[in-house]
Amino acid sequence: ETWNSIATWTCCRALRQEAWIGNTGSLDRFKAISEATQPDHRKAIKSLAMLALWQIWQERNHCTFRTKEAKVEDILNEIRRGLSLWQQAGIKSIQSPFGDPPGE
């Protein structure tokens, strides 16, 4: 559900599970996501995927160790926050369409 929500929000089909679900290993899935993305957006999609993986891991830890209930919207909000911080730091590869447009 999280990956499909990220794919919808970013308008990036490569992040939909259908694009990489047949791959069994994490590295194979990551490679499939990258290969399904236009070459000029691959750096951005790799950054976004790593940020998403990190936030999913963080949410899992909060559920395990703090008895928090997992919510997709919480993960998406943290990813947006991370993208915003990276954009403020000047990282150009993750500008729109990989994140909310500036001012939103």
Short description:
This protein has 104 residues and is an all-alpha fold. It has helices at residues 2-10, 26-35, 42-66, 72-88.
Q: Can you put this structure into words, describing what you see?
A:
This protein is mainly α and 104 residues long. The chain is globular and about 40 Å long. Helix 2 runs antiparallel to helix 3 (42-66) and helix 3 packs across helix 4. Mean pLDDT is 82; it is low at 99-104. Helices cover 59% and strands 0% of the residues.
Which H/E pattern describes the elements? HHHH
Helix content: 55-70%
Number of helices: 4
What is the gyration radius calculated from CA atoms?
14 Å
Q: Could you tell me the strand content as a percent range?
A: under 5%
**Uncertain regions: pLDDT < 50 for 5+ in a row?**
99-104
**First-residue to last-residue Cα separation:** 24 Å
Main β sheet profile: none
Structural class: mainly alpha
Which characteristics define this entry?
disordered C terminus, 104 residues, 59% helix, single chain, mainly alpha
What is the element layout, followed by pairings?
Blueprint: H1 2-10, H2 26-35, H3 42-66, H4 72-88
